[in-house]
Amino acid sequence: MTYGPKAVIVGAILGVMLLRPGTGRADTIDQAMSFTGEITASCVINVMTSGQLGVSADHLKMSSKEIGGVSGVAEITTNITGSQIQIVNPSAFTVAPSGADTGSLFSTEYTLTGVTMGTMADGAVATTLLPGVTAMTLNVEAARSDTLYPVGNYTLSPTVRCITP
């Protein structure tokens, strides 16, 4: 059988197409790729500004609310409903002259602004936070009923505590 010039050209083109990579039939293979992740409950406390103690005129009280005192400020970020914030009141001065702790009562109070709003007159009482960023303004006080605080340097260190469920 003889083939005409047209048939030869078509045959040559088909042959070249079969020999060229990528021009033949391709198989399709699918494979799923998984991406996993985990979000853990978290609460982050950043102390933005440390406080300063002022002294009452009668020298029976030192507080961030007295003249010369400055409130401390912390930023609390939580990602879960049900986290709580509270203050662990100091039980003694961190730094103080000898005998300064005797007869002293220590207390804290705070105000919250941001996603959670409120005021807590007793800082040791926990407040439930909403997820997001809350600013805390913290005040601390050391008070005596009848003995003046001695001259010297003082530091009070309450602990800001966040409890996640």
Would you summarize the structure shown here?
The protein has about 160 residues and is mainly beta. It has one domain: Immunoglobulin-like (Sandwich), CATH 2.60.40.
Protein architecture, described:
- By secondary structure, the protein is mostly beta strands.
- The chain has a single domain, classed as Immunoglobulin-like.
- Helices cover 9% and strands 34% of the residues.
- The chain has one helix at residues 5-19; strands at 43-49, 54-55, 61-63, 72-78, 84-88, 105-114, 118-120, 127-128, 132-143, 159-163.
- Strands 1, 2, 3, 4, 6, 7 and 9 form a seven-stranded antiparallel beta sheet that branches. A three-stranded antiparallel beta sheet has the order 8-5-10, with no helix packed on it.
- Strand 6 (105-114) and strand 7 form a beta hairpin.
- The protein starts with a helix and ends with a strand.
